[in-house]
């Protein structure tokens, strides 16, 4: 198929940037979206033009490195990652607009590549259980009901891609943050520090400049890992009960 | 130079305990005076960095992705082995040890493998304590499954995302140490060289991938946890960025490279769909529990299939060849990975492949669906079927899946002793980057185990042993050796940018991949290997005179990053060929056409090849020198694998 | 009190205020509606006028109504603070967005909807509350007691079709605001439950349709009655 691509190009963080239009032909519907961009990049390189920079690594939908805001939706029209989006989802003659994730907490580094280290800093603020290596109890010491364990797992599958932020009209990171808070708050091992964790992670989220939540649900609708909104409610609960609790003053 | 594996003396089961007692300790108050560099934040790197920081050392952790959480370990699906014997089915440390040695076709060290099996139980405890949500039974205890044809259920798993959950566990431990100020993270930073001062590894040179700045980092010890080099084949199940650069530069600075030719080719991957293909996707091995592998009996039918003149469903039972079931009646579709892969290649080479490219076989669930019902099959494999449909656009409930083998794991890597130290003092290699525990073939669910064993439970002891004998003072980062190494890196960048040739980096990478796949893939022979060596040399020359790297060195430049990696792959490829050519036997992932039993199975030569090949770099353009570490087996008897 | 200000200054805390004030306003709507529906009783406004007088003279109700004004103000002020914060979180917008693919229109336009409601509230206050309190207002006498004839003011106002339209449109706006706001407030408070949330959502939709519809019915009927 033949396509017209409108791609955001920006040389570096301080460059103003703008859209450039490219046409590309001979795209097979079996290609993944990123393979289509590979083809375009080979073309550009042949012409001596700087290839389009975009993030990607596993191309299996699990590392969370790929991004791209495609035709007005993060990761494009399917609820999956961009690397798992296939050209079958488009038709011959389409115009596709490709933009980077937009959020003040995700500054653009180049073209479609953004800096998501704010997510790392949120995890560093408390997204862990404070145990050292060694000296832990036997794995079967604490039975965990399967439903609880499964629910925790559902939250734990977040790949940290940032599509929730990109989708949200407020560039809010609630879904990402709440997924980690939920995963750990549900497990007996993680309950011990759940209050402190919620306070610290929320504080860091705010410090990074992410938006607030209007509960539009766009994040969950676009999340490639189907992280649920109920996690955000749980985070709110944990946070408010942490504020009221006398344990951490 | 004589290779000393430093395996502790004493009975197998006591070696590690004794060794732990004998290693030198660093006084807790002095640990903060030491700086350790950990390159890589996969399972091996993240777990090592976190554990060392917890002990009190200052750690710098590097990765090329934008976050440590994205290391390639994230992609592992199936599970992680541990000799917990929670299922009461007769598992034990010794059985896991034995299975691993045998699975590796008797090309690994007893001491290392036993230690691996021994600490495997601690890994599960550690991960659960960190909040890794492993699968559980209704009673609330951990669930296990049997994996990769193992006779016991010892595999712990987290749906099809075990690697992700384990890595996120290690990443959280790492993040905690970042918050504590004990680890400093350097994401989007690529290691370009090791700096050796007075024979010891004392730091690294890096390139900041965003700004392009070339920087020096001095330390007391350097741990390379940089993963495998399967991408030398261009197409593999590895992540796009996986590379050999760190290990290769270390190799050129004196670290021996072991068994580079041992490559694992995984039988159940989604076949290549065309030239545009950038990577291959693994479908979990568990599919072979219920799926039946087949191709048409005749070339004629296969041809019709390829031209889409007939549908797979329309092929009559008597025209189908369930070749694994016929050839290996007792193991059937569950033969080990190397056997399954090789046989797929054979039938496709005969012209019986079933997709347009002729390189695919069927994995058919028709009978399982008839037997257990579609819902039962969906319950077991639903997510895999969905993934398959997403990628191929075909519905595997209706038409058989197509699969083909793909490069998946590299058993070879930097040579390390029992302490995981390479031949350069102070330079360690952990995880897939070293060669240590899997011999010539890795068992399913054992790489995750090894990465975490190395990082959580081995390196924290053995690195301390080395540091205890080292003065506190750091080599200043303006030391001539650092300066020199920085200059070398910078001039190489300039060289690559200066070629301004006509072909893209990917062009060379694809070509190299084809050569490697055709001649050093599932089956190799002397003639092909010899030819391939020439081809690679020519390709390498062409690369250095005609590659086109656009942009500058002072910015985010993906083609420059790739160019560095491909340049190293080109050199590694040649060494892999040398290694494959010299090993005149077939073992595990290394199958030489010339060395097979009358039934076409791998024929080992224990008399002449029961050793680890360790290659020493001798300089640009020179053949590498082979060193042999003889393997001694005191606790297992060497037998021929048989799956008939 | 630092923990209070810390909590309320976080994005979650600000939203907590939105939700609590919003829920209070929802309750208020119910009470207000109950009163207003009396306008439709066929008694020439007697019940309504007596009700209005009782409300106005009850100190508790007066206190509540002051709170109510305070809550409207808080709700509006925090909505402005949040909107500003959210805008700052994405200084450069997208060239193309497809919000309809992932969220409802009302959820994406709470600010606009709310601002329209605010304008309506001001018009409403000027037209009725101010008139009742400070305006020239006729009196009526029931059983020897004199009451302000609010009913007369209202029915006079709703003879004007423009006024009626403003009311009806505003109620539609309120309906949209509530169609998202009702269940959203529960989510903000952390109430999201596999079993109860679907119920809350249904009640929310029902509420968002019923209450504004009944409110809108009053001017329409009164307009029809007048002509
Ligand atoms: C699809 C797939 C499925 C798998 N499934 C299983 C399974 O079910 N069970 C199992 O046991 N094993 C499995 N494996 C194998 C296993 O996942 C890997 O062997 C293991 O995770 C490797 O871990 P590692 O820590 O050694 O390296 P990696 O996780 O690959 O990490 C490498 C790290 O090094 C960094 N790095 C590399 N080069 C540089 C450089 N030059 N400079 C700076 N940083 C660098 C990277 O950024 C990264 O952080 C699977 C592998 C694949 C590909
Ligand atoms: C009778 C009048 C009103 C009622 C009953 C009401 C009710 C609500 C409720 C229940 C919410 C949901 C709170 C949450 O998500 O937690 C809400 C949100 C909101 N309201 Fe109102 N509201 C009213 C008037 C107003 C006014 C006057 C404004 C603005 C000037 C306003 C602006 C908003 C905004 C912007 C939100 C969304 C806040 C966010 O989530 O970002 N509302 N309202
Ligand atoms: S919550 Fe979903 S969209 Fe957000 S980072 Fe995680 S996986 Fe991505
Ligand atoms: S590249 Fe890893 S999730 Fe898309």
TrEMBL record, chain A:
GO terms for biological process: aerobic respiration; respiratory electron transport chain. Transmembrane segments: none annotated. The lineage of its organism: Bacteria, Pseudomonadati, Bacteroidota, Cytophagia, Cytophagales. It comes from Cyclobacterium xiamenense. InterPro entries: 2Fe-2S_ferredoxin-like_sf (IPR036010), 2Fe2S_fd_BS (IPR006058), 4Fe4S_Fe-S-bd (IPR017896), Beta-grasp_dom_sf (IPR012675), Helical_ferredxn (IPR009051), SDH/FRD_Iron-Sulfur (IPR050573), Succ_DH/fum_Rdtase_N (IPR025192). Pfam families: Fer2_3, Fer4_8. Belongs to the succinate dehydrogenase/fumarate reductase iron-sulfur protein family. One of its GO terms (molecular function) is electron transfer activity. This is Succinate dehydrogenase / fumarate reductase iron-sulfur subunit. Residues 149-179 form the 4Fe-4S ferredoxin-type domain. Its cofactor is [2Fe-2S] cluster; [3Fe-4S] cluster.
């Amino acid at each position: 198929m033949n396509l017209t691509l409108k791609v955001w190009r920006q040389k570096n963080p301080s460059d103003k940037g703008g859209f450039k239009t490219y046409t590309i032909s001979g795209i097979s519907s079996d290609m993944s979206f990123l393979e289509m961009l590979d083809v375009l990049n080979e073309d550009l390189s042949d012409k001596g033009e700087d290839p389009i920079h975009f993030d990607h690594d596993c191309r299996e939908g699990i590392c969370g490195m790929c991004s791209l805001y495609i035709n007005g939706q993060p990761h494009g029209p399917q609820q999956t990652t961009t690397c798992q989006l296939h050209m079958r989802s488009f038709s011959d003659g389409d115009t596709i607009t490709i933009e980077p994730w937009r959020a003040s907490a995700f500054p653009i580094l180049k073209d479609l590549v953004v800096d998501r280290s704010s997510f790392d800093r949120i995890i560093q603020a408390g997204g862990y259980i404070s145990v050292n290596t060694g000296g832990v109890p036997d794995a079967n010491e604490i039975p965990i009901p399967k439903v609880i364990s499964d629910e925790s797992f559902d939250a734990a599958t977040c790949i940290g891609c940032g599509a929730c932020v990109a989708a949200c009209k407020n560039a809010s990171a609630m879904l990402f943050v709440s997924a980690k808070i939920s995963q750990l708050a549900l497990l007996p091992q993680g309950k011990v520090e759940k209050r402190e964790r919620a306070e610290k992670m929320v504080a860091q989220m705010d410090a990074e400049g992410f938006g607030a939540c209007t509960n539009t649900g766009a994040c969950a609708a676009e999340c490639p890992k189907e992280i649920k909104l109920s996690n955000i409610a749980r985070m709110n609960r944990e946070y408010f009960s942490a504020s009221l609790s006398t344990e951490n003053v | 130079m004589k290779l000393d594996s430093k395996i502790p003396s004493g009975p197998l089961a006591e070696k590690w305990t004794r060794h732990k007692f004998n290693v030198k300790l660093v006084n807790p108050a002095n640990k903060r005076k030491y700086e350790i560099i950990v390159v890589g934040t996969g399972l091996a790197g993240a777990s090592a960095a976190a554990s060392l920081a917890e002990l009190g050392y200052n750690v710098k952790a590097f990765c090329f992705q934008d976050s440590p959480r994205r290391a390639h370990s994230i992609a592992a699906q199936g599970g992680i082995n541990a000799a917990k014997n929670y299922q009461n089915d007769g598992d034990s440390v010794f059985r896991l040890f034995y299975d691993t040695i045998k699975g590796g076709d008797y090309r690994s060290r007893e001491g290392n493998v036993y230690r691996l099996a021994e600490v495997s139980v601690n890994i599960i405890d550690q991960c659960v304590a960190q909040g890794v949500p492993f699968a559980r039974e209704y009673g609330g205890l951990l669930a296990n499954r049997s994996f990769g044809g193992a006779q016991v259920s010892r595999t712990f798993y987290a749906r099809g995302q075990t690697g992700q959950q384990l890595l996120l566990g290690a990443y959280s431990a790492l993040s905690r140490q970042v918050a504590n100020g004990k680890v400093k993270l350097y994401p989007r930073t690529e290691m370009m060289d090791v700096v050796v001062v007075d024979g010891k590894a004392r730091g690294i040179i890096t390139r900041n991938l965003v700004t392009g700045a070339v920087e020096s980092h001095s330390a007391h010890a350097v741990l390379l946890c940089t993963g495998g080099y399967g991408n030398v084949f261009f197409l593999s199940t590895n992540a796009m960025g996986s590379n050999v650069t760190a290990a290769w530069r270390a190799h050129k600075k004196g670290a021996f490279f072991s068994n580079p030719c041992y490559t694992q080719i995984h039988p159940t991957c989604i076949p290549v769909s065309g030239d545009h293909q950038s990577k291959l996707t693994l479908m979990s091995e568990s599919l072979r529990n219920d799926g039946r592998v087949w191709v048409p009996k005749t070339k004629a039918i296969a041809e019709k299939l390829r031209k889409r003149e007939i549908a797979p469903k329309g092929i009559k039972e008597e025209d189908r060849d369930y070749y694994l079931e016929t050839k290996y009646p007792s193991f059937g579709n569950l033969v080990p990975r190397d056997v399954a892969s090789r046989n797929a290649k054979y039938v496709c080479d005969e012209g019986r492949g079933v997709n347009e490219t002729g390189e695919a076989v069927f994995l058919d669930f028709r009978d399982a669906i008839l037997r257990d019902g579609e819902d039962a099959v969906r319950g077991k494999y639903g997510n895999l079927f969905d993934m398959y449909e997403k990628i191929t656009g075909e519905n595997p409930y209706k038409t058989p899946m197509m699969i083909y083998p793909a490069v998946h794991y590299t058993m070879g890597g930097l040579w390390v002793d029992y302490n995981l130290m390479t031949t350069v003092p102070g330079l360690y290699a952990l995880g897939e980057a070293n060669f240590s525990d899997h011999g010539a073939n890795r068992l399913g669910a054992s790489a995750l185990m090894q990465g975490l064993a190395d990082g959580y439970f081995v390196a924290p002891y053995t690195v301390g042993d080395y540091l205890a004998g080292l003065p506190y003072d750091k080599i200043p980062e303006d030391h001539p050796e650092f300066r020199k190494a920085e200059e070398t890196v910078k001039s190489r960048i300039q060289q690559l940018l200066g070629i301004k040739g006509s072909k893209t980096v990917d062009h060379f990478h694809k070509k190299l991949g084809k050569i490697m796949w055709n001649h050093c893939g599932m089956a190799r022979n002397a003639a092909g290997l010899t030819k391939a060596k020439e081809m690679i040399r020519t390709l390498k020359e062409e690369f250095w005179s005609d590659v086109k790297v656009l942009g500058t060195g002072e910015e985010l430049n993906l083609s420059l990053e790739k160019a560095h990696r491909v340049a190293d792959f080109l050199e590694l490829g040649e060494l892999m060929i040398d290694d494959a050519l010299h090993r005149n036997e077939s073992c595990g992932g290394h199958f030489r056409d010339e060395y097979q039993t009358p039934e076409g199975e791998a024929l080992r030569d224990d008399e002449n090849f029961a050793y680890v090949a360790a290659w020493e770099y001798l300089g640009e353009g020179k053949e590498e020198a082979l060193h042999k570490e003889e393997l001694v087996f005191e606790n297992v008897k060497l037998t021929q694998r048989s799956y008939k | 009190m630092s923990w209070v200000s810390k909590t309320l200054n976080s994005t979650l805390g600000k939203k907590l205020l939105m939700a609590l004030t919003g829920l209070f306003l929802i309750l208020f709507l119910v009470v207000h509606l109950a009163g207003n529906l009396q306008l439709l009783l066929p008694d020439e406004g007697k019940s309504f006028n007596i009700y209005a007088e009782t409300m106005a003279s009850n100190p508790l109700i007066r206190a509540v109504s002051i709170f109510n004004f305070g809550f409207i103000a808080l709700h509006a002020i925090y909505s402005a603070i949040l909107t500003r914060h959210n805008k700052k979180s994405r200084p450069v917008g997208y060239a193309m967005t497809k919000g309809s693919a992932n969220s409802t229109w009302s959820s994406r336009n709470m600010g606009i909807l709310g601002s329209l409601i605010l304008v309506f509230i001001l018009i409403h206050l000027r037209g009725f509350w101010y008139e009742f309190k400070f305006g020239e207002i006729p009196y009526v006498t029931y059983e020897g007691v004199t009451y302000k004839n609010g009913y007369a003011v209202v029915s006079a106002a709703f003879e004007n079709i423009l006024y009626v339209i403003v009311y009806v449109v505003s109620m539609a706006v309120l309906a949209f605001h509530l169609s998202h706001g009702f269940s959203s407030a529960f989510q903000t408070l952390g109430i999201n439950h596999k079993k109860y949330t679907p119920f809350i959502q249904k009640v929310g939709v029902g509420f968002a349709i019923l209450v504004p519809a009944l409110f809108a019915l009053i001017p329409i009927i009164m307009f029809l009655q007048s002509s």
